[in-house]
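Predict structure. Chain length: 567.
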Amino acid sequence: MMKKLGLSVIAAAVIAGGVYINQTQTGGAGMLEQVPADTVFFAAQVTPFPLRAQLEQYSAPLLSEQERVMMEQELEDMTQPSARFLMHWFIHYAEALTSPDKFIEDYGLADEVTGYTYALGMTPVLKSSLAHPDKLFATLDRFEQQSGQTHEMRTLGDRQARVYPLDLDDTGEVIELWVAHHQGELTLTLGAPFLTEAQITQTLGASQPARSLADSGEVAQIKTRNGFSSDNLGFINHKQLVIGLFSQDGNEFARQMTKLIDNPSEVVSFRNPECLSEWSAIADNWPRTSFENDYRLEAGKLAMEGQMVVESYNGVILDALMQMRGFLPDLGKGAAGPLLSAALGLNADKLQGSLTTIRDQWLEQEYQCQALGEIQDELKMMPPETLGLFAGFTDGVQGISLSIFDYALDQQGVSSEMIERVDMLMSFSAKDPGKIVATGAAAFPPLAEVKVAPGEKKQVDQVMGQSLPQTMTVEQAGEHLLIYSGLKSEAAAQTLGMQPANPNGLFSMVLDYRRAMEPMMQLLSAIEPEAAAELATYSEMDARLSMEMDVDSRGLVLTYDQQPTQR
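Prediction complete.
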């Protein structure tokens, strides 16, 4: 439908490969004056980001050895200079990621970087501090020599840029990749057929948009509404995205998309006034996804934390979601905590009422837009009583969790079970945990075998006459039904048994990369040394990731924390 759009995606991927865009998103004091107010996306890293520490601690190869060989073979068959240029760039980028010195050297970066990125319509614009532009351009020169690709120099105002024409398919469409440097700042963006000369002049910093983010005050509003304390923040603007998708020329995104559509009749089902009006009303209630990040070095190790808020002004749905909040256990962090944990906080007693409220909200008006109408048709087939079926089997439940503290695999390959031992804890939290087994046993009688009284422990080594891989302990402690095996899990069960099952969230997850991978790597090293060698970098990743999802007056909130495991 949109061949040009396909080209833009490929070229945008090239831009992302040019710098380590995950973390190089910052700018100077005039940053907001350079970004158009109708941008769909914006992200900034205002404080210097420790790039070298990030590469040393978390970097992992993008390509396996087999994938790299296949790509190099594919490269030998390529004849088009543009395609060869992009392939050389990507292969180099993937290889350089595994060597912090090489990555920083070849791309002219410093140990710490700043930058920002935004969308000019559909077009990505990336800015990054650049310590040694000569080194970056020498690397690009090498890609040119290897591929046969050439660039031309263009001047707009007082700015110069390299322009790479990228003919990426047989349609004759050419995308221009612009690479510019001015006073320590690198700019990468796409030119024709997306941007006019005046717009490219804007991206290079030689002029400013007619109305900018500084004029709109949106960033200050985001900080105030969400309580963000960091300037390392960003957003996805749902309102501007809706205008871009469903109108012809409502903003720059819409105008560029209109140019890219080969056959307007193919998009008439959603690009019409009804869809624009109805989706805009939804976006008014859910205007943005905003996020902030904070990075710091602790004893030379990089720690990261942040939060993302799907902002909402729909009080009815927010109240319904808040009613659904359940209990998430606190089982500790670091070596004493689980290497893998997942928990669902869910107030089963409020589930049917909350889901019915959300369903009724969607059915309040009859949508004319095809996509929204189809959603409504699906919801009409789900009567309120159907939404309560799950709650009937989980009477009183406030949360469910599974945590693994340690495990061992059969290193000899002689056991019929691959898992030799597991130290794990499963918990069911409820105001009356005894009812969980009683209710479940009514539908599945073998569950009666694990029924315990408050304060009682029972050893279980089989269910329905079938032996379990290891003996499990079933215990009812406080407001929790606990099933566990192993010393660490037993200690965690004692801690959890004293925690009241009060609502504190919707979902949480913990993953300790190094501890989770170690037993698997030991087994893989014994049976497939070559595969183990390829995965070694992943197994040595020095990071412990924890995430939590919750809901409050701002909207849906996702918080994350990534800490080094060895300090």
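Summary: Residues 3-215 form one domain.
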